[in-house]
């Protein structure tokens, strides 16, 4: 499972593209590669973003070659005139570009299939620096490049994420393992938690670490991850997993999972195994909670829908909330959250329901319930609950944190009743 | 309005933080700074991301100082031991760190207000390299730093976006203008379009350009932006605006706006000026369309809500779609989209309604309507329309593109009827 005991590597990622520097496109590649390289024991040492300019790209490669064990470039390997990476790398390394007949045959076949003519510019994509391999692109036309030379590896990946991700997994990782650069299994064990801060989590995990183990943390909107890794030839895979098990037992219900699964996909999985469905009633999250469920492929098996009721009239007409309840307690109240959840169960005919109502800001709020106050409701065959949380931050942060908090609450309640069922059954 | 006629500047952005390289946090700063620097005539030349390591930061600063007109760092200026930027920059430039009494007074006052004790580490944030200014942080404790030396500027900004954005706008931009680094107004005119590709748009814009004007493009999920800027001391502000007006007239209904407003905020604005409301009925977008509306502050004035009906039963019970309609035409059909839109108007009591139903994938789809097929519905007092679009890409891309396409469609229909009203009235 885990077998990453090699010495630390120096890894450089170069993202090429004017749009990344002009504030036009988010550099999602760095996030994705950061996680997926670290998992293979190759955390990124440094990253550079440059324009679609052959001289700039060549300068970065020249300066970096020799100092890094692995260089990964993204973008600039397509057929258009602003695709400069392939030629710039060859120039920087003093290598000639050579055609790869198999890549050309694959490209001609693909173009014939979609009825497009092959131009000279298209064929330029089938060249690689002398001694490099051309990497098949299962989702697009631009092949990647893998070069291993003087004990160093250089990888060129295409710009579109849809093409980059499968090429990295299918073509690059096996080759990096083949040359002993990436480790065979996972490089660390990640324990994902919710509801415990990074500081108390560290107080739990630190004393459990054995010799030769390192610890790092990641936090994202309430989720706190502890990553336990081996330093050099320190700890074995089994020892790391053993620590993860102890952390899981120590954090109790705050334990979410080991690995990288998101809260929504875990709740969908729980519901699938129970063969139950869920419906939502949303006010301040405004559809973001429904979107978290529907981002999970196959969610339609368990997700009935969401009544996004921003206006009070909509809460009454769609969810059947009595006008008197809103008049007496207000639309942002524990009572309204509970009524929204039971209303969702009735209207959607689901087994469970989750509801959210609150003040996301910048307007709204009262002295007792300022901006950031959110009431959650949960209805299931056993009854109805509601709870109040106060979330700091702007509109986007309040929405996102309310989504994660409600998903985590549902995960806990589903787990809790399952655990108790087991105890009663024993 | 536009007065950016200075020579091109060399701009380097250095983002500091392990979490940016380990795949834990998206580097949103680069996107934000990229846009907001370019608007001031300071497009980013190159960007580097380094770990929380004083030696690494100092190495980048040493290598870059002198070669760039402006260096901006983000992160690493807080009070904890992994905040290394302040000291590393001083070391690299051979400057002593000196305390700033006004910054210390502000920090002590802030801490007293929130009842927290001031530690020596907290006070470390009030030091700047000799000759630099300390920049007040209106949203947090870590002050920024502004250094102008030998005709070059260096700016240190805090890591949290909530603190970085106002500090950049309120403290940094005026100082960059003061030293003649940033231009006084906007550096370019941006024409935002939807429905026209970048290639045909370029064919329209290119012949309209005058001498000393440059053109670049940005595309994001159907939105295509043309940015018209002045090269060096080429064109005047009025000349750029004049070209933008001609582009607007030439692209017709595909013209969205000049500037940076998102589609949802424009539709919200249109509805506010009409004093009308909208409701949604969503299937495959699964709440993402509602979320686009509710991301706009003040949307509650015009946004009634959304019936996210993933299950067919929900379409019947919440929106009153007849079972026979779904049986005859299917839930993914022009007929169902139209019925969803009229159902939303009825249930929410809104003036307008927008609906989306389709196959987002990876599962689903038929031979006639493969994955990516989406039907949109639109209902208003004048009648009901539906249209079919086919969107390439994965689940996330289909959802996002369906959201933008439906928002753009509503924008057009609202505009169209207003334009015609004017003609009839004339």
Please report which band the strand proportion of chain A falls in: under 5%, 5-15%, 15-25%, 25-35%, 35-45% or over 45%: 15-25%
Fraction of residues in helix of chain A: 40-55%
**Radius of gyration over C-alpha positions of chain A, nearest whole angstrom:** 26 Å
CATH class descriptor name of the largest domain in chain A: Alpha Beta
Question: Would you tell me the overall average pLDDT of chain A?
Answer: 91
Assembly state here? homodimer
How many individual β-strands of chain A?
17
Biggest contact: A-B, 80 and 81 residues
- Under the CATH scheme, the architecture of the largest domain in chain A is 3-Layer(aba) Sandwich
CATH topology annotation of the largest domain in chain A? Molybdenum Cofactor Biosythetic Enzyme, Chain A
Strand line-up across the major sheet of chain A = 2-1-3-8-7-6
Biggest sheet layout of chain A: 6 strands, mixed
Domain count of chain A: the total is 3
* Global structural class of chain A: alpha/beta
How many helices of chain A in DSSP terms?
15
Features:
homodimer, Molybdenum Cofactor Biosythetic Enzyme, Chain A, Maf protein, five-stranded mixed sheet, 17 strands
